[in-house]
Structures are given as C-alpha cells and as structure tokens.
C-alpha cells in the first residue's frame, strides 16, 4: 500500500520530535560516569595511601582540586540530561578526560606515594598546584604582562600580515620586489634574531613585540598572498566584465576566497607566537611568564615551571578553540565541500 502525503508528514514530524528529544542510553550514562569514577578513584588512592616521599609531607591543594573537579563534573552531568548539546560534548570528551585524570593520578603515585620520581625535577601534583596558590600574585602579574605583550604582537602581526599578503598576492610589482624579502627573513627563527633586535630597537619591549609580530606576519602573509594569487580566474574575469573595479574585486572576490588560507596562517602563526613570547621575555623584561619560568629554573623551583607550562597549555587551547569557532562561523559554506 502506498504511503499517503498525510502519513509522510506524520512520520516526518515524529522523526523531528525524536531528534529534538534524544534519549539517554545506559552505555552513554556509563561513558559519562567514567571521568567521575576516575576522579573518585584518584581521590581515594591519594587519601588512603601514605605519603612516602618526602616523609611527613601533608598535601592540601591536590585533594581539594579533585573534590572541586568532581563536584563541577557532577553538576554538568546532571545538567546534560536537560541540555543535549552539553551531553554530546561531555560524551565526546569523556575518554580524553578519563585518560588525563589517570595520568595525573599516575604522577601522584610515582612521586608522592612511592618516590619513584625524585624532587626537585619531577614534583607531585600537589606541589604543582600549591605553587600556583602560594605565588598567585606574582603569577597573575606575570600573566598580565605576557598577555599584554602577546596580544600587542598578535594584533600588529595580523594587521601587517593581511596588508602585505593582499599586496603581494594582488600586485605583481609588490610581489616582484618584496617576495624575495619575505622568503629571506620569514623562515629565520625568532632565537636567531635576538642579537640583531637588541641592537636595532631602543627598548627590550620593542624588540619583544617585533619577535612576536614576525612569527605571525610571515605565515599569514605567505598563506594570504598564495590564496589571492590562486583565486579562480573565471570569477575575477566575470566581475571585470560586469564592471567591477579592481578594489571591489580584491575585497569581494579575492579576499573572501583567501579566508580559509588566512585562518591556516593564523593557526601556524599563533603556535609559533608562543615560542616567540618565551624567547622575547628573555630579553630583560621585569615580568612575564617566560621571565617567571627562567626565574624558577634559576632557583630550582620546578613545580613553578610545571604549573606555568600548564597555564600555557590552557591558554593556547582557549585561543585555538576561539579561533576555530570564529572560522566555523565565517566559513559555514565550507562544510560538506572541505574536510575539516
């Protein structure tokens, strides 16, 4: 018997309702409980096993951290039953979170509980977390100066990289004269510029900004100029036939076509800018995360080094995730045509 139009509409409505209210299965619940179970196991092991190395050490920060994370995860887990997007995100991250928690617990076992890894080179999780809470003011000041320096270099690097990329990609004259300069100075690593920038710039801050700008400017200029040169000639000729000016074609045809390459250049530049930041803060600045790491290394405070590296990882993850979200919003037309 053939399906009538009313039956088809009824089935379509039921399928939409099923998609709008997805049911939570038992395997999904167990998967979401895996990080909570790992947190609980790490907490129980830490509280039950004695502290072997160093003897008499009393841990405070690490147990409180585990309890806080467990409470936050339980709250999010309960909220995920009402928020399907949150539930999907937690399911996706559940095994990664579980693995990360187990690695931290293994570090706790290998340091504080067994003494397999010795101080000061491999500190326990409690010492790493305590180095943050006991030096919060110094770390906050260093974080502020590092972010001020980093974002100043990123903004200048993005502006200069976009301008030079458009000029090199659109103008044959600019490409002829300046592309060799780009190929010569762009690939030079930031560390190699240290003795030169100390002579060229009046202050260490100006030299530091230059190193970060260079790390952003080179990949962004290279990717944008290449993408503009590779713009579909048919689109450009069609716009010219319709009477569009060169400026209009560049802004409304070539530049939108170069957006995917622009984000690729930003990803590359952002990753290298963090390395440039550490190098830049070794030029004699009075505060910054790179300075903080160097100062902690001089005093053998490896717990502070570990905590600062962890802060860098969190910051880099946030910046990259923000950049991915911006790209996904601006380049919705790529979905289904380009594999992300």
Automatic annotation (TrEMBL):
A GO CC annotation given for this chain: plasma membrane
Pfam families given in the database record: BPD_transp_1
Domain of life of the source: Bacteria
Main location: membrane
Keywords: Cell membrane, Membrane, Transmembrane, Transmembrane helix, Transport
Ranges of residues in domain ABC transmembrane type-1: 143-324
PROSITE patterns attached to this UniProt entry: ABC_TM1
UniProt cross-references to InterPro entries, sorted A to Z: MetI-like, MetI-like_sf
Transmembrane segments: 29-52, 64-84, 90-110, 149-170, 176-202, 209-228, 248-267, 305-324
Membrane topology, as annotated: Multi-pass membrane protein
Subcellular location: Cell membrane
GO biological process, one term: transmembrane transport
PANTHER family xref list: ABC TRANSPORTER PERMEASE PROTEIN MJ0413-RELATED (PTHR30151:SF0), ALKANE SULFONATE ABC TRANSPORTER-RELATED, MEMBRANE SUBUNIT (PTHR30151)
Family to which the UniProt record says this protein belongs: Belongs to the binding-protein-dependent transport system permease family.
Name of the featured protein: NitT/TauT family transport system permease protein
Species name: Desulfitobacterium chlororespirans DSM 11544
